[in-house]
Write a structure and sequence with these properties.
The chain is of the alpha+beta class and 542 residues long. The protein contains 12 helices and 22 strands. Strands 1, 2, 8, 9, 10, 11 and 22 form a 7-stranded mixed beta sheet that branches. The radius of gyration is 22 Å and the shape is globular. The two termini are 35 Å apart. 50% of the residues are buried.
Length: 542
């Protein structure tokens, strides 16, 4: 079922708090939106609690780190406060690419929905897994990946190097002359490019909206593919501008979610609760959910909540197409996995970013580097990034920007923390492990060799974390001593608390995590549906 247009608020917070819901979903991004739709379409009553605003459906804007006013950020659906990140012992504050509105960060994303490979989840003879493997097999997960492709209307072509089985890819629109020429130039040097997998319907007049909110029902995200269809069933209700403070729980069950809206505090009750606030926020909600039996937070008996934080490392490359190729704009057509896995070593995918090396893009990139550098305290110097940006934009000319996504691995000391004095502030501690720096050097070496015959230049100097891809802070697993969630993504020891955002991932894989998050949300949704049906049958039997 699909829906478009503004989302109506069926109930007030007071009315919603007076009801008992089948499921409460906290967060409306890829994970929350997808599972909410699954549950509502199955006949369950669903209450979405979203910290940010609904926004205007027809607005089209990108995340903007230059806007510093809190109210202005909240209205636009940006995370309201700066992230405080300590990277390798050096602290900096900056606005992360995190959304806070209906659809979460997904409404701003670039719509890349790539399939993981089998070795991402399992240990194979030719590719040992760094954690021994996920608690479910690729075969168990594959049907949900294919279904997520259908749900998100994913267009693209098969990767010629992939060993994947079932897919549900739709045929993408024809490539432009420039993209077709660049594809051939890669093939001429024995690379294996394919049409990148995009969650876009390409309706008439499609703007693609790569990195922007989509004003149409065209780019598929947590709002358009999740919340809106869920609301169209008549069984889901949305409360926006409703910030969850903590969970009230006793023994093995969550009883209520405590949330604030317009200065008033409410208790929302349900049979099941789903946490989908994102890998930087879901663990902070659990940490804030303290009780006498768990003073360190819900599910945190082994001090694992918020730990094992992973990002991807970005290797940005400006690549000049061969002379004579004509492009209609930035390219987001091509990806390749020739560098994904080599000699059992995990690297990652290489893909077009959908941006040109324009003056504005370069200023944005340089300002981000400045904000995370040792010069960040000297704000007056920040304006001078415009000078090298102007020079670079002229020099780059028609260069296209590609990015290598290098897999990150889990380390206990990398984590997200709760700031009890300012719960809205995201606090991160991260250190680069020697092995990832070694893999980065090898990755860059492979790219230099693999892109031979093309004029290109690396845009990344030191290692650059992709703050848009946090994951792993509540990993699922079979051993409660080494994981926060069980294989069904329920918090160990809790009967009715599940997690479906990127927190659940035990490894980051070498691709954008969005499709994997959506697939897992469908899987967990089916588990909750079966559990509630069993509960209803037991009640009828009595």
């Amino acid at each position: 079922m699909e829906a478009s247009g503004e989302i109506s608020r069926a109930l007030t917070a007071q009315e919603a708090a007076a009801r008992f819901w089948d499921v409460i979903v906290i967060g409306t991004g890829i994970g929350g939106g997808t599972i909410g739709r699954r549950l509502a379409e199955s006949g369950l009553s669903v209450l979405f609690l979203e910290q940010g605003p609904q926004g205007i459906r027809t607005e089209q804007h990108a995340l903007n780190s230059e806007i510093g006013d809190r109210t202005a950020r909240e209205i636009r659906g940006y995370w309201p406060t700066r992230i405080r990140a300590t990277i390798n012992g050096r602290e900096s504050r900056f606005y992360s690419p995190t959304g806070a509105g209906v659809g979460g960060s997904s409404v701003f994303y670039a719509a890349s929905l790539e399939m993981p490979e089998r070795h991402d989840l399992e240990a194979l003879p030719e590719a040992p897994h760094p954690t021994g493997g996920w608690p479910i097999t690729y075969a168990e997960f594959a049907p949900y990946l294919a279904e997520a492709q259908t749900l998100y209307h994913v267009c693209g072509s098969r990767d010629p190097l992939s060993q994947q089985g079932r897919t549900s890819l739709r045929v993408p629109p024809p490539m432009t002359e420039g993209d077709a020429g660049m594809k051939k130039s890669f093939e001429d040097i024995s690379l294996h490019p394919y049409r990148i997998h995009m969650g876009i319907k390409y309706v008439p007049g499609c703007l693609e909206c790569i990195g922007f909110k989509c004003p149409k029902n065209c780019k598929m995200d947590g709002r358009s593919a999740g919340v809106e269809p869920a609301m169209a069933t008549g069984r889901a209700t949305l409360l926006d501008d409703c910030k969850v403070i903590n969970l009230k729980w006793e023994k093995s069950r969550v009883e209520a979610a405590t949330a604030e809206q317009a200065g008033a505090v409410f208790q929302f009750r349900a049979r099941d609760f789903v946490l989908a606030a994102g890998a930087l926020s879901s663990p902070r909600i659990l940490l804030a959910s303290r009780s006498e039996q768990a003073p360190n937070g819900c599910g945190n008996g082994n001090d694992l909540v918020g730990r094992n934080l992973m990002f991807h490392l970005n290797e940005m490359v400006a690549l000049w197409p061969r002379r004579g190729l004509r492009f209609k704009g930035p390219t987001k057509a091509l990806a390749l996995r020739d560098f994904y896995l080599r000699d059992g070593q995990r690297f990652g995918s290489f893909q077009a970013m959908g941006v040109d090396a324009s003056y504005g893009s370069i200023v944005h990139f340089l300002n981000g580097m400045f904000d995370r550098s040792f010069l960040r305290g000297m704000r007056t110097l920040r304006q001078f990034t415009r000078i090298p940006a102007a020079i670079a934009a002229k020099w780059f000319g028609d260069a296209k920007i590609f990015v290598g996504i290098l897999e990150d691995l889990p380390y206990r000391e990398n984590r997200v923390l709760l700031n009890s004095d300012d719960p809205d502030e995201i606090v991160v501690e991260y250190g680069f492990a020697n092995e990832i720096l070694t893999r980065r050097r090898a990755f860059r070496k492979m790219l230099r060799k693999g892109l031979r015959g093309h004029r290109f230049i690396f845009l990344s100097f030191g290692p650059e974390l992709n703050f848009g891809h946090p994951c792993g802070t509540l990993p699922f697993g079979n051993d409660p001593a080494k994981s926060v969630l069980d294989k069904s993504c329920r918090v160990h020891g809790m009967e009715n608390m599940s997690v479906v955002d990127a927190s659940f991932m035990p490894t980051s894989m070498g691709v954008n995590p969005s499709l994997t998050i959506a697939a897992n949300a469908l899987r967990v949704g089916d588990i909750i549906i079966a559990r509630q049906k069993a509960h209803a049958s037991e009640k009828e039997a009595v």
